[in-house]
Specification:
Structural class: alpha+beta
Radius of gyration: 32 Å
Largest sheet: 5 strands, mixed
Strand content: 5-15%
Number of strands: 5
Number of helices: 5
Strand order of the largest sheet: 2-3-1-4-5
Number of domains: 2
CATH class of the largest domain: Alpha Beta
CATH topology of the largest domain: Alpha-Beta Plaits
Shape: elongated
Length: 224
């Protein structure tokens, strides 16, 4: 190969090297753009997960009290009742109702009524501290509490403590014979494994009704 051919070959090699460098630069830019896009997608994925969690919370959480809502109660009640039945331990259940609530709402209005719900939500959350304690706003002025692994004395004491804690808030209620806002409670310990969850709930309703008839601000408990 003569000198002229060598120069021509070197020129071609330089041109090919330059083309390769340009291609590498382009590839690096593509990779950089890809990494930026991937990071943005990761951020959007995290944001989407957070939004989904908020939507899920809205679906199962009562916004006013931060307790579980009725849908959440029904799901949890089914699960916990089946688990207690399957593993042969007692399931303890409270059905809680605000005494003379319609009269309270008529006298004090919607804003005060909403504050009452928040107060009861706080009281229930203060007592539901164990991993197997679940509290819910079941209906407008009705609440539920599911728990287990407490004997009869401990469970009755829990129900009475919740009742007393609401009374001790000293929320004025002129139409309540006790002078202040109170709650009545129907308590049930489910021990008989031949019964179903409807039996438990029905008994809680009957006990709640008895608490109302006995003067309100009462706890009535039954062991099934």
């Amino acid at each position: 190969m003569d000198n002229k051919e060598c120069l021509e070959e070197n020129k071609n090699l330089k041109e090919r090297l330059k083309e390769s460098e340009e291609q590498i630069t382009q590839l690096n830019q593509i990779k950089l753009n890809y990494d930026i896009l991937l990071a943005e997608l990761d951020k959007k994925d995290i944001l989407l997960q957070e939004l989904n969690k908020k939507l899920e919370d809205l679906y199962i959480i009562d916004e006013l009290t931060s307790l579980g809502n009725r849908k959440s109660f029904e799901d949890t009640f089914n699960i916990e009742f089946s688990r207690a039945k399957r593993n042969y331990y007692d399931l303890n259940f409270l059905l809680i109702d605000i005494d003379f609530f319609n009269k309270y709402k008529e006298i004090y209005g919607l804003s005060k009524s909403n504050e009452v719900f928040k107060v009861i939500g706080e009281v229930l959350n203060n007592y539901a501290r164990r991993g197997n304690d679940f509290v819910f706003r079941y209906e407008d002025d009705k609440f539920t509490y599911i728990t287990c692994f407490q004997n009869e004395h401990e469970f009755l004491k829990l129900a009475q403590s919740i009742k007393d804690a609401v009374y001790e808030k000293q929320i004025e209620h002129k139409e309540n014979d006790h002078g202040f806002l109170t709650i009545s409670i129907g308590a049930v310990i489910s021990r008989n494994k031949s019964l179903n969850k409807e039996d438990l709930f029905t008994q809680a309703c009957e006990n709640l009704e008895k608490s109302k008839k006995d003067g309100k601000n009462q706890v009535t408990m039954t062991v099934l």
